[in-house]
Amino acid sequence: MAQLTDSERRAWLRLSRTENVGPVTFQNLIRRFGTATAALEELPRMASRGGGKNFVLPDAAQAEQEIAQLNKLGGRLIAACEPEFPRGLAALEAPPPLISVLGHPHLLQKEMVAIVGARNASALARKFTDTLARELGFAGLVVVSGLARGIDASAHEAALAVGTVAVVAGGVDIVYPPENEKLYAAIRDQGVIVSEMRLGEAPQARHFPRRNRIISGLARGVVVVEAAEKSGSLITAQYALDQGREVFAVPGSPLDPRARGANRLIREGASLTEHAEDVLAVLRPMLGAGFAEPDAASPASPAAGLEEEADRIRSRVEEALGPAPVEVDELIRQLGAPAGAVLTVILELELAGRCIRHPGNRVSWA
Predict the structure, then answer these.
(1) Residues 6+ apart with CB under 8 A from 284
(2) 154 lies in the same domain as 282
(3) How far is CA 74 from CA 77, 78, 98, 310, in A?
(4) 97-156 pLDDT, tens per residue?
(5) Is the separation of the CB atoms in 317 and 342 below 8 Å?
(6) Looking at 99, 130, 164, which one is the last position of a domain?
(7) Does any domain span residue 295?
(8) How far apart are CA 77 and CA 58, in angstroms?
């Protein structure tokens, strides 16, 4: 890990804000070109090779302005390659390239547990959450949640005195929902607020899964207190499973629709949780240990050689792609082509907006 220079930090921000560049594509570009500055220089040409038109890079002045505004608020950007970046996020297969933080970023270096649940939570669920968050906090764990109404708000409020992290779906300067304005101010003063969205951006529905991925990624485990079927809390639990985190669920009445999601998690193997000790008994053995690290990046191959090979197999890759997602490894196996060349074609198609990535290292036509 290394500290970025100011100019490279701006380049990281511009690259991360580039259309069609998600965390996986960002990581692939850094692996290939070494720096964001070098990747930005190559992006228009690569998008053109993939069939893209009118490719536009984010404005450098806007990136500089966003960094300056965040600094003025007392916040900062932390890149995935820097030592201050949370260990849990760094261990994800493709971490968010940058996070914005307001408050006390040292809390991100502590052991964390996430507590999530229904926005329209019952009074009993909120009371349980208050007790659970306090006891987990006094046991030394920082409580992570999403600053939503209901269970999230109860978890944050109870953990304020010992440390809490709010991951938001908009910019770190945007208070959402509005009724949590006082709680937002308290967390900014005593805890830390985190987001990967640009400053000033209002939360949108498509942002919440990205927020949920960060919530689970920061934590050793996720506790679901109340959750209806198909709720955002279950999405967070699924991310936790995908990331190798522990999942805990609080049982509820079968007559309450808000308990169905948590009850189903228990049937599927989540740890039944009635007390803080149920969580601590599972997490204690792993506290202080490292997270499972992602595979080390392979050295970048010479671009010229890759592009020549990519041109030879481009039509075969395009023919093999379809509307249904296919695993990249399976695509390479079926084509019998060099992996670097196949990945180059996919990367160019992604930048052109013609190919999209799905969970599980799968791709399809956009």
Answers:
(1) none
(2) yes
(3) 11, 13, 17, 46
(4) 999 999 999 999 999 999 999 999 999 999 999 999 999 999 999 999 999 999 999 999
(5) yes
(6) 99
(7) no
(8) 17
